[in-house]
Amino acid sequence: MMSTPLDRRALLSGALAGAAALAARPTIAQAAGPAELRIAQPWEVKTLQLGESGFTFTRAGITETLVASLPDGRIAPGLAQSWSVSDDGLQWRFRLRDAVFHDGTRLDAAAAKASFDRLLPHSLYLKRAGIAAVHADGQDLVLKLEKPFGPLLSYLVDNSAALLAPGAFDGEGRVRAIIGTGPFKIGAAELPRSLALVRHEVYWGEKARVAAVRYDAVANGDTRTNIAVAKDADIVFNLAAQGVGRAGSAGMTIERVIIPRTHILMLNCAKPQFAEAPVRRALSMALDREGIAAGIMRNKALAATQYLPPTLAEWHFADLAPLRQDVTAANALLDAAGWPRGADGIRAKGGVRFAGTVRTFANRPELPVIATAMQAQLRAIGFDLAISVGEAQAIFEAQKDGSLELGLSSRNLVIVPDPIGTIALDYAADSIAPGSTGTTGWRHDGLRQEVARYLAEADDKRRATARRAIAGIIHEELPIIPVTWYDQIVAVHPRVSGFVTDPLEQRYFLDRVTIAS
Amino acid sequence: MSAARSSFWPGGAAGTVLRIVASRLVQAVLTALVLASLCFAFVQALPGDAALRIAAARSGDDRVTAESVARVREQEGLDRPLLAQYASWIGRLAQGDLGHSLVSRQPVWRELAEHGRFTLGLGALGWLLSYAIALPLGIACGFRPGGWLDRGTNALAVALASMPSFLVGIGLISLFALTLRWLPPAGFRTGAHMVLPALTLALGLAAFSVRIIRNAVVEVRGAFYMTFARIRGRSAGAAFLHHGVRNAAIPVATFAALQFAYVVDGFVVVETLFNYPGLGDLLVKSLLARDVPMVMGAGMVVGLMYAAVNLLADLVCIGLDPRRLAGRDA
Questions:
Q1: Residues 6 or more apart from A397 whose CB is under 8 A from it?
Q2: Which chain B residues are closer than 8 Å to A5 by Cβ?
Q3: Which of A65, A104, A370, A451 is the most exposed place for a label (fewest CB within 10 A)?
Q4: Residue A52: which of B48, B58, B190 has the nearest Cβ?
Q5: Computed from CA positions of residues A233, A239, A240, A242, in that sequence, does the dihedral angle turn out positive or negative?
Q6: How far apart are CA A112 and CA A96, in angstroms?
Q7: What is the pTM of this model?
Q8: What is the pLDDT of residues B226-282, one digit of tens each?
């Protein structure tokens, strides 16, 4: 009879001893050697396919593309040390560097061609460049285009077509291992959460200063803030604005940079209440962007005065009249457009109520809050806004079946460094792309012509003219109303030096970082 | 009780126990199948295009293309009728194959094993910690019902029980990770990473079990056989040790099994809060991504775990009170 209680006691004693032993083990900060750089960032690596997770591998410095973008947006040599283009703009010749893949094999034109052949069909943007053929010619890789394509170099930064070693592919051409050329290679992977990176000792450029990187995915924003406050990581990306004060007080250095991402109010221009440009302008004028930026985004500078933020210097035009709140002018525009107020203060025209439901989602926690702010602001001009919070994909589905009235979403403008990639998809395509969060029920032939001109044009001056025309049409027509820009907030541990913020988020430049011992 | 034990365990008792185990296993497998089928039905009933969500889960919302959605639909056979998809899953299951995740493309069993080991470790530690807290407190309260310890524990238990586990977790993080800096706020690599999530679970569990233990002790101490033991000259402690513990343990063991439900529920919150890669985290992400094979596999595993824990509790109760076999044997 005594055996059961005694066994239980022994069990409990063991459990307590175990818990105590566990508690006595070191934390990450203590366990990590001084040479290991610890990164916390939000994106999990779900798969090894570059079309799906390529941005993670390039940002972490594992894979590289023929050319690379610099933080100021300029295109610089990457795995191609130089390039030339034929007079007709149809043949691009890239001289490859003397680089070595992580498995020790050399990068040559044949390997580069093999990588392109496998990845190009699954690339996100590069396949839109119209590459008709890829040839290996000595140490040169030659790309032949169907027609001239001006922004080809920007499209070549597409990380879904980074160069991988032949050994990275299985028999069916799928990526089975990430064997790139970057300053870091994967030592161990615990997908989807964690990558242990080690320095690529025979990197073609300057070797990474840290020997090892722990690259962790922490999807929850509050948890990332806690990690920053506890200084349990060296660099914490995408810190929530609400966590800046706490992380700063804990001794982390805060870096903020406006990135090319815009929170947008999407309008279905096929609906009668959004069909006319002056009405859309009135809706835009009702928004207190500065209030939203200061109160919700915690950064007044994020109030969007035009669609493309100043980070994209070539695409941001100071001569465009800034989008500002002006309720009186907005009401005057609506009165002139024939939308009188009803007894309840809401306008109507021809039996159509000046109202709509905005669909948004909570993955970006600020969006439902912004929707609530807009609800009050739009009521001041007689617009009745209802809010529906669901999944991000529900916006696209509503766009597709025509049921969308309004959508509040967020658009990454530089999946490739030239925003023409997203503008062409969002404003000038015949069909709506699932990830585009673009226009709905709106078509502008003038804009389409300018986009086509820009894509085909190699001359910088003529491209600049097209850029201005495109930005001007978007600004005047407002088929999508910009609300705020977005800033990348990074918390950096004081032991870290040499950290560079890339507004284009193409690379994290971890190879330039050093850690104090 | 010794006499009862010697008359039931030897001989036919082992056979009865085996029959119970076999019957429960069959029930468990059937329950798990029904649960998985319900998971299939519920996920399919969710609005929206599954292929779109799977493609978005693989690459992120910004990077979804019409081609990637079409590829998912075609490669994963999502354009087939629902009955065909379900039949295909059943067919694979009959061959011992749970299929592969539609997001990571990894075999479901591998994903479940990978996440399950984290969850089991965390769950076991949380459960043990909860009883390390609740047993001594509950027994002490049961010995002095209405005393200051009983009243204080009751107030604390009510407060903890009414608090959602994420709030308890945030409190622990604030104190031990952000203020005292004793433990890391999130992660999963070292034992230290397990302490705060396990404690979060343990406090939630202990809030209930401490009262059950306390009540069981109070009830047992008031039982006739305890009075009889005291009349025979045993001290209160000795009488409880010899006659009370086993009787008080029966409701506690049953309750401990029921608490497993709380643990599974708690995992979802705790694993998200602490960035802990367990089954709860996997289940939520799989649901959001409409990763049907993963949801069905996770449903089966959770169902089987429930059944296993309940069977274990029954066996413990039979061990504590072998008279329970009498009815089953008849």
A1: B48, B49, B52
A2: 241, 245-246
A3: A104
A4: B58
A5: positive
A6: 9
A7: 0.86
A8: 888 888 888 878 888 887 787 878 877 888 777 776 677 678 888 888 989 988 889
